[in-house]
Design brief:
One of its GO terms (molecular function) is nucleic acid binding. This is Transposable element Tcb1 transposase. The protein has about 140 residues and is mainly alpha-helical. The protein has helices at about 35-50, 70-75, 95-110, 115-130, 130-140; strands spanning about 10-15, 25-30, 55-60, 80. The chain has a two-stranded antiparallel sheet. It has a two-stranded parallel sheet with strand order 3-4. Strand 3 (about 55-60), helix 2 (about 70-75) and strand 4 (about 80) form a beta-alpha-beta unit. The protein starts with 11 loop residues before the first strand and ends with a helix.
Length: about 140
């Protein structure tokens, strides 16, 4: 979803959804590596959700930063259950469908952004405006 009016640099965003949790977006500065994934996503965002939901199972894909030893140790140490992820199976992920819904709503009701920061603001507004029932339906459909 790149809708800049000029040649502004791309931004990387991590998005998380949960059946009982509000959705969250995290802007990733630079390239996502395993240390960045732990420090900017897993510890501050994921762990704050999961500590209140003890039976939660986390679903991640097989992207390189997600499968490193340090990330696996993070999940093991905090006793966070992981949903098995078959190779090349994006259809099993509710977040993939969330991305499509978000792209359609963002394109439909948002003017083009002139900076990456403005794009992120528009995206966050679209993301948080989605009714939670939409998100819950994504889990039921997968």
């Amino acid at each position: 979803m790149h809708r800049h009016t000029d040649s502004a640099p791309d931004i990387m965003i991590w998005g998380g959804i949960g059946f009982h949790c509000p959705p969250s977006l995290v802007r990733i500065a630079g390239t996502l590596n395993s240390q960045c994934y732990i420090c900017e996503v897993l510890e501050p965002v994921l762990f704050s959700y999961i500590q209140h939901l003890p039976s939660t199972i986390f679903q991640k894909d097989n992207a390189q930063p997600h499968v490193t030893r340090s990330v696996q140790e993070f999940f093991f140490t905090l006793q966070i259950g992981l949903f098995p992820w078959p190779a090349c199976s994006p259809d099993l992920s509710p977040i993939e469908n969330m991305g499509s819904i978000l792209a359609k709503r963002h394109a439909w009701g948002t003017p083009p952004a002139s900076t990456p920061d403005q794009f992120l603001q528009f995206l966050e507004a679209t993301w948080t405006a989605l009714p939670h029932g939409y998100i819950q339906n994504l889990f039921i459909l997968c």
